[in-house]
Task: inverse folding
């Protein structure tokens, strides 16, 4: 029930009802060829009603014609309502996001050359321009999207993401982006505005949902052509029926012609088509993904290859120390102490995990006059010097070089440990004391729970997953196998991603990737679906065609399913709509001819009450099926990764066979009811 | 009774058994693989190309193929017109038959160039032997055109990106010399040995038992009948077509001719499997077509074998089935089987009068032509089916949540537009044609009373059938329709032209555009088109598109007649 109420809130309903009347404007209606012809039919019926009032007697009773007119009008309103409610829902969702960026005071900072004056002007956020600098400290609401150029702060992004845990954003690197409407919890930052007011992604998304800039996607265009084709067929069928009926001496009323036509053209899908498209974007927004176009969502459903960063997506955060292996002659306690000492000033998550695993008391680690050696890309090791002791830890070949230069041998059992650790997907860190090997630390990646199942699901959808990692091929292979990804790029440089994407695309596949860094921007732009994380750099966000507000790397999987759902909903409702025609024919055709050719009673297999009741029942069914299917159109048809053929079988059974049978039952029931009155 | 059904079963079995190896052979011809007939035909083909100055190795794009096809068809049409309107002044006219009138010649020339072979004349009195020979040649040419253009579509369906699709003239000449000609020779010789005439002498005179003198028409019949059957042409040498004893003398020739009708159409499907190396896809297509064929064929045979209630009520026993309009030497089952075979394959030759079939059999024959791809005409049957595949791929692609693709090529707006226009064309031509005829008739029933032998529902069926037959390029007549009038000649002529060339250009354009697209390798998410589920989908699309558009018209024709008959 909770879900139901969220589908149709009262305020949404009111605005949607109003919109459904506004949308009757033929100019707006013209965008949808199927419903436009219904509108013409409705207008003709109105004319017939007036004609009868002015004395015509050939078209049946006024009441009957008037009811047909009303039902047709209702059909139009229902279709408009479907579109309006989808728009209203999207707007409501977007508005709640927009609320977070209402007018807030901005502390504008003047820029003087390369330094900033500490003089702060307080101006409304709406007056901030692209390129302006502003300052935020603990307790401030960030007035606009931007990029931190100085400082570090903890930020509460729950207004956007719904996630209550604060996040850290800092200048430089890939986590420098802040979003308007979020709140600074501690520290202070200086931020440069990166977008003009009204041009943020969110603004674009709102415009998309509101329809101002909504363009039909390629699939939508192709489907509209199909539906227009079916509409044309039935225009031909209805028009040619006039001379046929004249030949057979069975005059047909205008109401019957219009009813036949409206029932046969695919009004169900025609009425729901735009609602389905908008609902797709709504669902993306609900998943906290901002799409820059409807097309991107649709493309996501077609993705063949998915590029995922290892860290954060497949494995939890960073590597952790899991084992210490002292060399043969070394006392374990001594080894552990040396290891811990070398990591005291190591702020990396790996360093911290080593201290954690060592589990020593702080007093055991007190040393005099330590000199800490920082890790550099050149030495590829770090460590500490104190008294006469030099402890180094680092990549095995770096430490090996170090020791061998000093004339010490690299012990065989250490070499064996190094190899075993690598082969098991771990990263070995070799530790030396005064250029003598004392042991190895094993760092291991922790694979996220449940990730294996998600990849399995992707595989069943026909999507190949590719892990991107800076690890060496051996480690990468192990993790790839353990996590269940299909392929991996080891020792990846930014251009490797790009090349991989290009290679797959050249073979005709569609590639999706997720990224956050400026490095990722070219690859994000090259990928068919590029999802940038909201925490990522501005460049990344510009390059991708979606932005994930949650910064959740597994979000791509959801996006793919939303895309698939979107196409499936269109396909199944088209099938349903066309399959309905079988029953409608059996209701209307006997009704048309039975007066002139009584023997055609045999075709009235539903045993409908009278020609008038049959025609009314068919148009009423045709009208009310639209609102009945609105919830399905908005929620989307459930996607099940059971393989394309099984899925087709399933949907064909439900929507194809169901589409043939349901109207037989529906029309018969409505006829039983209508028969009470005529 | 049972032997009649057995006969039908054996005919079907025979055609499938022959079509499998023939399909392989046709596939080899299109793949330019060596066959044992090469030694005979290579010099002949080369002679043709040398004489015409065509280089058969020039690669063509789909547009060039379409232009080549249209150009040579237009020239053939002009030649045909010229001869038909001047036959009385040309040689080979022993019976002194007159030249054709302009509108009849237009209708006949169009009819034979388009592989329809609707005949608004009677061969005995309407054509000289030169006219017959020209029409015989045209039956080769139009069939060869269909097979050649189908080969172009096969070439376009390869699993890679291609810009050019072989040479049209080469495909055309190979289709005529290596496929149609050898089979026609075999069929013709079989017929000659069973008494079908093959002579250039004029009418023979015989004295009957009563002592009357009767003039009997004859001519080069066997050759004519052979190509008419195997090229899904259907234009008979004599007015009554294969019901005439000189065209189809006995049960054995009836078997040969029936098998000939659907031999190449079925073989083309197996050829597709061979050319594309997609046997499974070919099997699915064959399965869908066969299901449709059987659904029309089985009830028709049952209806005809049951006999006609109305005639039974008149006191005439119906224990041989409904025999009105049928030949005793074939029986009701074989006649019904022929009727459905000839209408589903766009052949249009008849061995009984379709006008006299029970109402529902008439409807099944109509449906066969309305769908026009349960095997369909040589080559073009598959092209029609291809449109249905595109529509089915599109809808089912959406249903599995993926941009629709067929054999690794994405189906987008442009292809849908073409497919939809072609799918629309058939109902448009049939319904508007029939509507126009109905309109004219009710405006002035007196003036047009010669049109309809039977007024009422049956008369409506006669008009509907004529336009359906023209639009399906079938050529069979419901008869009972006075069709040699300027209205029917010209209207049907226009319908035949549009219904022949647009449904050829459409699929070639789609296939050509798809061929140039990027090839997408298959994944687990790709909808496989060689499965029975997809076959079912295609069948549903065909059934719905045909049934939906024609249901009202059929209701006023055969269905109304059926209900009035049982009441």
Result:
């Amino acid at each position: 029930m909770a879900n139901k109420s969220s589908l149709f809130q009262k305020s949404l309903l009111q605005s949607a009802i109003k919109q459904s009347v506004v949308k009757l404007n033929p100019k707006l209606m013209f965008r949808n060829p199927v419903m436009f012809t219904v509108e013409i039919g409705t207008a003709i019926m109105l004319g017939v009603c007036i004609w009868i009032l002015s004395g015509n007697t050939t078209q049946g009773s006024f009441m009957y014609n008037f009811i047909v007119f009303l039902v047709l009008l209702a059909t139009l309103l229902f279709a408009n309502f479907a579109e309006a409610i989808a728009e209203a829902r999207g707007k409501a969702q977007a508005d709640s996001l927009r609320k977070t960026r209402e007018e807030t005071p901005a502390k504008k900072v003047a820029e003087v050359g390369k330094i900033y004056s500490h003089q702060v002007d307080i101006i409304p956020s709406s007056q901030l321009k692209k390129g302006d600098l502003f300052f935020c400290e603990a307790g401030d609401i960030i007035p606009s999207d931007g990029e931190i150029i100085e400082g570090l702060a903890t930020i509460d992004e729950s207004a956007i993401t719904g996630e209550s845990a604060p996040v850290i954003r800092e200048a430089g690197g890939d986590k420098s982006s802040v979003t308007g409407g979020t709140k600074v919890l501690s520290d202070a930052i200086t931020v440069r505005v990166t977008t003009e007011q009204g041009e943020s992604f969110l603004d674009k998304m709102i415009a998309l949902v509101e329809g101002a800039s909504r363009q039909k996607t390629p699939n939508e265009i192709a489907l509209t052509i199909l539906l227009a084709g079916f509409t044309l067929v039935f225009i031909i069928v209805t028009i040619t029926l006039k001379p046929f009926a004249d030949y057979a001496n069975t005059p047909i009323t205008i109401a019957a012609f219009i009813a036949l036509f409206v029932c046969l053209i695919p009004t169900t899908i025609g009425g729901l088509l735009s609602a389905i498209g908008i609902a797709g974007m709504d669902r993306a927004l609900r998943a906290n993904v901002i799409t820059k176009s409807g097309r991107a969502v649709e493309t996501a459903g077609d993705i063949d290859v998915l590029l995922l960063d290892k860290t954060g997506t497949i494995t939890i955060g960073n590597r952790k120390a899991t084992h210490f292996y002292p060399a043969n002659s070394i006392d374990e306690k001594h080894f552990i102490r040396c290891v811990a000492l070398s990591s005291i000033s190591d702020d990396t998550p790996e360093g911290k995990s080593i201290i954690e695993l060592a589990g020593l008391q702080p007093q055991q680690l007190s040393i005099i006059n330590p000199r800490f050696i920082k890790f550099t890309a050149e030495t590829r090791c770090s460590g500490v010097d104190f008294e006469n002791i030099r402890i180094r830890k680092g990549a095995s070949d770096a430490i090996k070089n170090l020791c061998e230069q000093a004339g010490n041998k690299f012990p065989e059992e250490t070499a064996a440990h190094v190899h075993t650790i690598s082969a098991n997907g771990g990263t070995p860190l070799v530790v030396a004391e005064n250029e003598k090997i004392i042991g190895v630390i094993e760092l291991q990646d922790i694979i996220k729970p449940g990730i294996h199942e998600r990849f399995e699901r992707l595989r069943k959808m026909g999507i190949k997953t590719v892990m991107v990692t800076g690890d060496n091929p051996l480690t990468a292979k192990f993790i790839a196998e353990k996590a269940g990804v299909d392929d991996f790029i080891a020792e990846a440089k930014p251009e490797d991603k790009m090349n991989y994407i290009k290679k797959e695309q050249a073979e005709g596949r569609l590639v999706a990737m997720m990224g956050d860094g400026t490095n990722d921007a070219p690859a994000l732009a090259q990928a068919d679906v590029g999802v940038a994380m909201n925490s990522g750099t501005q460049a990344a966000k510009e390059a991708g065609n979606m932005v994930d507000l949650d910064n959740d790397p597994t979000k791509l999987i959801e996006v793919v399913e939303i895309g698939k759902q979107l196409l499936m909903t269109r396909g199944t409702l088209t099938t349903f709509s066309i399959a309905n025609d079988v029953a409608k024919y059996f209701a209307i055709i006997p009704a048309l001819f039975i007066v002139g050719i009584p023997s055609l009673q045999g075709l009235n297999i539903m045993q409908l009450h009278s020609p008038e009741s049959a025609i009314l029942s068919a148009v009423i069914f045709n009208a009310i099926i639209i609102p009945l299917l609105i919830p399905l159109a908005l929620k989307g048809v459930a996607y099940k990764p059971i393989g394309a053929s099984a899925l087709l079988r399933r949907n064909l059974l439900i929507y194809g066979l169901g589409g043939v049978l349901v109207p037989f039952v529906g029309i018969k029931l409505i006829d039983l009811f209508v028969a009470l009155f005529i | 009774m049972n032997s009649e059904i057995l006969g039908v079963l054996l005919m079907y079995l025979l055609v499938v058994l022959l079509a499998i190896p023939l399909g392989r052979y046709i596939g080899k011809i299109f793949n330019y693989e060596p066959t044992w007939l090469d030694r005979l035909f290579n010099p002949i083909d080369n002679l043709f190309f040398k004489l015409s100055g065509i280089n058969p190795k020039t690669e063509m794009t789909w547009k060039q193929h379409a232009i080549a096809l249209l150009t040579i068809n237009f020239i053939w049409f002009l030649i045909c017109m010229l001869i038909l309107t001047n036959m009385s002044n040309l040689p080979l006219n022993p019976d002194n038959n007159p030249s054709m009138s302009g509108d009849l010649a237009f209708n006949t020339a169009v009819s034979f160039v388009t592989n329809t072979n609707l005949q608004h004349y009677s061969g005995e009195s309407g054509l000289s032997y030169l006219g017959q020979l020209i029409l015989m040649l045209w039956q080769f040419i139009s069939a060869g055109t269909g097979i050649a253009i189908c080969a172009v579509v096969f070439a376009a369906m390869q699993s890679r990106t291609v810009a050019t699709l072989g040479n049209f003239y080469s495909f055309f000449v190979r289709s005529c010399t290596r496929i149609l000609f050898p089979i026609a020779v075999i069929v013709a010789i079989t017929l000659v040995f069973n008494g079908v005439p093959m002579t250039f002498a004029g009418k023979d005179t015989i004295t009957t038992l009563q002592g009357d003198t009767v003039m009997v028409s004859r001519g080069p019949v066997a050759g004519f009948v052979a190509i008419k059957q195997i090229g899904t042409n259907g234009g008979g040498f004599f007015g009554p077509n294969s019901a005439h004893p000189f065209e189809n003398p006995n049960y054995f020739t009836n078997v040969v001719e029936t098998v000939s009708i659907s031999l190449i159409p079925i073989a083309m499907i197996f050829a597709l499997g061979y050319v594309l190396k997609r046997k499974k896809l070919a099997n699915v297509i064959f399965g869908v077509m066969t299901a449709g064929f059987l659904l029309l064929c089985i009830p028709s045979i049952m209806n005809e074998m049951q006999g006609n209630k109305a005639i039974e009520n008149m006191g005439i026993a119906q224990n041989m089935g409904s025999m009105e309009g049928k030949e005793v030497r074939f029986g009701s089952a074989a006649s019904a089987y022929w009727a459905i075979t000839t209408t589903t394959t766009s052949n249009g030759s008849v061995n009984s009068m379709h006008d006299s079939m029970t109402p529902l059999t008439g409807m099944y024959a109509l449906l066969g032509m309305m769908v026009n791809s349960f095997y369909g005409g040589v080559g073009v049957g598959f092209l029609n089916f291809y449109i249905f595949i595109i529509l089915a791929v599109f809808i089912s692609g959406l249903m599995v949540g993926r941009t629709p693709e067929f054999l690794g090529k994405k189906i987008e707006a442009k292809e849908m537009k073409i497919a939809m226009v072609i799918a629309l064309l058939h109902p448009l031509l049939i319904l508007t044609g029939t509507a126009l005829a109905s309109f004219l008739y009710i405006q002035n029933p007196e003036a047009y009373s010669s049109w309809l032998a039977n007024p009422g529902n049956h008369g409506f069926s006669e008009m509907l059938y004529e336009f359906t037959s023209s639009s399906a390029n079938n050529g069979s007549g419901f008869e009972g329709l006075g069709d040699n009038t300027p209205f029917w000649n010209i209207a049907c002529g226009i319908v035949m032209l549009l219904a022949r060339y647009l449904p050829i250009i459409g699929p070639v354009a789609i296939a050509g555009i798809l061929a140039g697209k990027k090839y997408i390798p298959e994944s687990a998410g790709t909808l496989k088109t060689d499965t029975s589920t997809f076959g079912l989908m295609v069948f549903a699309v065909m059934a719905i598109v045909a049934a939906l558009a024609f249901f009202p018209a059929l209701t006023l024709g055969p269905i109304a007649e059926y209900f009035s008959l049982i009441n």
In short: The CA atoms of residues 420 and 565 of chain B lie 38 Å apart.
